[in-house]
Predict the 3D structure of the following.
Amino acid sequence: MKLSKFGEKFTRKSGILELMDDLGKAMGGSDKKYMLGGGNPAHIKEIQKIFRTRMEEIMEDSDSLEKLIGNYDTPQGDSQFLKSMAAFLKKEYGWNITEKNIAITPGSQSGFFILFNMLAGEFSDGSKKKILLPLCPEYIGYADQGLSEDFFVSYKASIEFISKHEFKYHVDFDKLKITDDIAAICVSRPTNPTGNVLTDEEINKLSKIAKQNNIPFIIDNAYGAPFPNIIFNEVKPVWDENIILTMSLSKLGMPSIRTGIIVAKEEIIQKIAGINAIISLANTRLGQAIVTPLLDDSSIIEISKKHITPYYESKSKKAQEYIKEFFNDEIPYYVHKSEGCLFLWLWFKDMPISSKELYQRLKKRNVIVVPGEYFFPGLNEEWDQTQECIRMSFAMEDADVKMGIKIIGEEIEKAYNS
Ligand code: PLP
């Protein structure tokens, strides 16, 4: 079958598709597997109970369910949700916004597809523009989203060594260049895969650079505050007319309902709604309906802080303790400072084998992680980090995380001593 350029690009075996396939297959069979590879949020009982109660309220109301599932939403999103979300953000953060500043997308992943391709790619005057990722490693899910080739440009992070086995990435502002072909700057904060949280200073600096160059600054807040708040230090969300803030209900515990939220200036929101109408007519309203009352009374903040933040923070701490227990202290391993997300990013300095080989060896021992090399979209220079890191989730059962880490420790020992 002959395919269009779009068809070719989006059906090509991307690295991530191959990997996801491999991860899926690796999970088959009857042996016990230690799945530290995925990005699925944990099933937190207290949160599930809140969603269940909300569903029961919807069911008990005489016509809520029928309205919810029987009517198309508007392409911008459910008007009650948009109003509640705007009022919530205004009340909590003082942002000057109304419902006209908010749009819903079927998951924030689709929101990025719309945003990236609306802002960058090929222009009618023949010029081409790219999305700048100022801190690499960055979220794997951006990598294949461009409708045209050569869509991203990214920069190596600078490295701060914190202690014998801990480090943190920072934006290397000395290297950062905003050329005429940059359409927007984008960061995930907290960052998937590293669990990094860009400092307020870094965010303010990037925001200023974006403004000076008259380009939008996209902040991917999938894990951030106010919800799901999988962030282990106090961070105040920022927004202004030049910032496009994306949020999601996925890591709150509803990844299957596919609800992404974009907060941006009206002009951008109108365009997103227009594209939504063409691509998908409307969004799913269920997630919006579940969350609306939690925004109206601001309880979503308390719920996140009480049940989600401590849950993941304690999982992260435990995983780091297992690492200390099982990794040979003489090996030059480093764990990225865990400031948020569901992952630890492990760097094995000067490791004699590649992270992909390590992934294969671990897979043979039923431990599934993600090799680091997929997390460098748009990086056009050599960097040891691309071959020396892995991402592991700590969202699973403690016993599985512990056993997985024990086996990683054993394989690392073999790798360095081979
Ligand atoms: N952004 C980041 C940083 C993510 O890790 C993810 C999912 O893992 C997404 C965006 C997309 O999330 P969703 O489409 O479920 O809202």
